Amino acid sequence: MDSDSKSQASDTVETLQKEAEILKKRLEEERQKLNDVTLEQVAERLDCVSCPNIKPRRTLKGHQAKVLCSDWSPDKKHIVSSSQDGKMIIWDAHTTNKEHAVTMPTTWVMACAYAPSGNFVACGGLDNKVTVYPLILDEDVSLRKKTVGTHTSYMSCCLFPNSDQQILTGSGDSTCALWDVESGQLLQSFHGHSADVMSIDLAPSETGNTFVSGSVDKMVLIWDMRTGQCVQSFEGHESDVNSVKFHPSGDAVATGGDDATCRLFDLRADKEIAVYSKESIIFGANSVDFSHSGRLLFAGYNDYTVNVWDTLKCVRVWLLYGHENRVSCLQVSPDGTALSTGSWDCTLRVWA
Amino acid sequence: MEALVKEMQDTESGGVPVRSQKIFLTSIPAAFMGYDLIEWLIMRLEIEESEALNIANQLCQYGYFFPISDSKNLVVKDDSSLYRFQSPYYWPWRNKPPDNVDYAIYLTKRSLRNKQRHGLEEYELEAFTNLKRNLSNKWDIITAQAEEQVKNQKSMKKPDKLISDSQEKAYWRVHRPPPGILGSLEQVPVPTRCWNGVKPRKKTIEDCKREVELLKTSLYRTRIKVSQALEGLLQHVDTYTEFDPLLVPPQPSNPWVNEDITFWQLNAPLVDIPTEKRVRKWGLSMEDLLGDPTGVQEFTNYLQKEKSEENILFWLAVNDLRRSSQSQVLWKIQEIYENYVKHGASNEVNIDNQTMDKVLEGIKNNSRFCFDAAQEHVYNLLLKKDCYPRFIRSDYYKNLLSNGIQPLQKKRFFGFGPTKKKASTTSQPNQSQGSQSSTTVVPCGGALSKRRGSDRSLSGSAHEISHFGVSSGTHTTIIKEPKVPHSHSQSNLSDIPYRVKKPSIAPGASTSEEVCPWETPSTPPRTPTRNRKNSTHLDSEDSSSDISTGVTEMSEKVQRCLLTQQHTLDCGKKLHVDTYETPRRASVSVPITHNNSSIESARRKVSSFEDNSTTASAIHAASSVFVIPSEKDNKLNKKPVDYALSISTTSATMKASQKSHGFAKTCSMSSGAPIISVSSATDDVVVVDCPFNPELAPEEDVDGAHGENPTLEVTTYEVQVPSHPETTPPSISITMQEPKAPLAEPDIESPATELPPSEMPVTNEDVALAECVTDCENDEATTVKPSEGEDDEARNTDVCPWEDEENCKVNTPFVKKYATLGYL
What we know:
- The complex is a heterodimer of chains A (352) and B (824).
- Chain A is mainly beta and 352 residues long.
- Chain A has helices at residues 11-33, 39-43; strands at 56-61, 67-72, 78-83, 87-92, 97-103, 111-114, 120-124, 129-134, 146-150, 155-159, 166-171, 175-180, 186-191, 197-202, 210-215, 220-224, 230-234, 241-246, 252-257, 262-266, 271-276, 285-290, 296-301, 306-310, 315-320, 327-332, 339-343, 347-351.
- Chain A is built from two helices and 28 strands.
- In chain A, a hairpin with a 4-residue loop joins β19 and β20 (262-266).
- In chain B, α16 (310-322) packs antiparallel against α35 (765-778).
- The radius of gyration of chain B is 36 Å and the shape is elongated.
- Chains A and B meet through α1, α2 and β17 of A and α1, α2, α3, α9 and α10 of B.
- Chain B: One of its GO terms (molecular function) is GTPase activator activity.
């Protein structure tokens, strides 16, 4: 990532970069010292995961353009999805009914998220803003919208960190930011990526003060939300990191990238511990998520498929066909009973 | 990705099978057949045919090869149709996405040539004219170039010309697809997503410094061996596999697979009887326990029993503080300090000096993280190493475990789905029907009673004191009328029965059908009988409980309302709730305990009403009124202190056909509810009654819910008042909210805005729970009552999983009320 020490780079930048290079090498050495075994070896003794019989159970039709993002409601039944044409739809996925449809004043709504209470959704995209909508049954939702934060570039991802009162966003301006919903105040910004942040995920603990971000600069960074400092970084991907997800144990992070691989990084071992790739998978992964136990990793790809990986044995155990265009987003439901996928073919599907 | 694609292409050109010039009757140069391609892919990648086909199609979409005969559809078929490779020059990632000038040249070229073979399609013509207009200033150059290229082409040999022609055409087919066809090459309009890869932003010195800093620190990070880490992962997966619904089918069934939502009902965030599996999960780790609202509840109850709940409360409060909105941080810090940290605080947490210094330092800065050090201390040393292990080893936990619901086979559920669900949700053991499916449930009931005995505030429902009245107000109008007078009478007496209405019904009438499959016609017939029973026997509750709880609740409600009113009038005598399997239903017993003749009369009236209502409406709106006169209070003082807590849970489940009825009912219900509330609130408080009714009635769809909403609001207000017991319990100010406000509003806004003095905004379920817990703690006596309320609520939630939130919110207010009672 330091390759472009271009002509006008000042001395200090150059020296600093050199220093960084040296440090990186030492770091790699340190990591290697403890690299005594591979995941495949350890997982050899395991039984193969029993093939889950996952089938499409619901198809949500109604978007007029590419579905770009979706999120499960904490009630395990509803889904919010956003699309390229600026529409945001709240679905009762179980009945496949639409409960709300909101038109955003922008196209490419690339992020949407349910609040933990289920009473709000946040979304944003090329408008660079994150907007919160209260979910009110019989009122025009858009009348009550509230713009919470504004980035200097498109907003690629957002989530509520265990609270309705705050929103965490990632943006094309290569930063992440934590906002106070009520006042719209910027509580904390997170600088460290050198390119667009594509995805963020919150650590799965109650006190969780950390989150992970993945970026076009191929880096995966772990952040301390309190201090705004990056506390850990992982390299490995050969191309953009499109999606990051914490392992349910909180000790590892899975990523999906444009290099057609998914990877697993362990926080405690401080290194990459698995690469999920296959010769026949040559298209980028847009979105990843774990099953509740962490045994399965679902990944949505640009080749219209969802591959299901056995995270421990590092083999693909299942391949889900159904969508007729890229799978753009994917998420396991809060209680782990189902998997939702959104695609450029304008539909969402629920698998179980 | 591009690299991979290229590599693939290379392998092909590198002599790996497919690349063959198939010559077909009239020799078609440089082509290959579909099945050859597929076969090669299968061999090369060791994949199955379907996947190979998928990949081939993808590559075709991206323009790496194209069908020769069909220029319209970029589809690869596994047959003998012919395809041709695109020349690398045209590969997608070789060059930037083509601009309009190129396109114009291409179109001009074609227009210059043989009309027959190179004629433009309609959409191309359109594009052509558009381009001509837009690029008029460059048009000369464009035509010149086009002519040039045509000339060049003519000098080529015929086969070459054919190939390059087709390749060019295919290229534009990919990049300028006909309208209506989604191109997979469409870019994300995100700056970095440009094809050639945009240069990364130039690094500033700051960036570099930051990076170096990070690298330095990470160099000395403590790591564990990879083997250790992997072992940990394996173990985690191993432990949790049984809790992974996608690996191990959930019991009783996955709601996405067979529409049966029992699973969700059993596993609602807040339930009075968690499933056995859930309880088992709590035992895995403290995080699992605290990650589950019900788990937190049970844990708190247990600690309360042990008189050491301050730790968990503190922990919860700090967690809330960390994520609360900026404007609330200050007073929340203050509150936590006052309640838990300050020397001599009511719930002082045991913190060592060093940590205390840190905390004090943080408080000075008003940092929302100021208690983090203390929280960590409490969490690791006290909760995790002390309380949690004790909890897991305790009989309390074992009881939970042994009493946990063990969902069985689907069949049972289907057979008795309705009863069971309700039973589980309401935690009512079905006595009458219990024999069928509720055998599992019944023990739960017993468990409940135990828990109650053991101070189980939240979950344990039945208290001796509290009365649970369930009345079914199916006919709203009828019920209302009778109720109203009673309520008034109560008000006159200055007894304060609090009335809380819960919306237990599904949000959408339409959904309700599907959502509440258990609520089927079968239940309605039973209900009338029960109602009658109720009228005749106080025991109606039991029977009702056995049957669909909703129905029973409704009928009981009515009665209880009346009863409660009377009770309140009577200055609320001690109500002993027998710990029946159906503890809440115990309320039935309560009326008995009441010696008031008036009550009896009321009952009769009620019963009559119930009958009418039930018969008339097949649908059931179940409203349960809890009359909880605080025993102590009652006896000690016949003052307004006696609060009759009446909780009416209206569950209006209707069939589609009965929807209209349902509406009417709901409306009526809602109206009735406000009335009741008014009566209860009458003492000192503002009456919130009438206005709601009219407004509610008009509301349509989510009728049940909407109608109930206003009532909910009312209740919440009331609750709030009591929540500040220390102030003046008798003086209660009820603020009216917009009746029409959707569910979400009351939950979020109302509590937050109006309850600011109260400990916390009820917005979050967790928060609400926490509050409840705190309240409960404050009043030990009260705890029992809240438990009942919560149970009911929990049941409601169970019934309608989607309304969990609402219910929870509602619950919190209940709790508060109870708490206040305890204070009194």
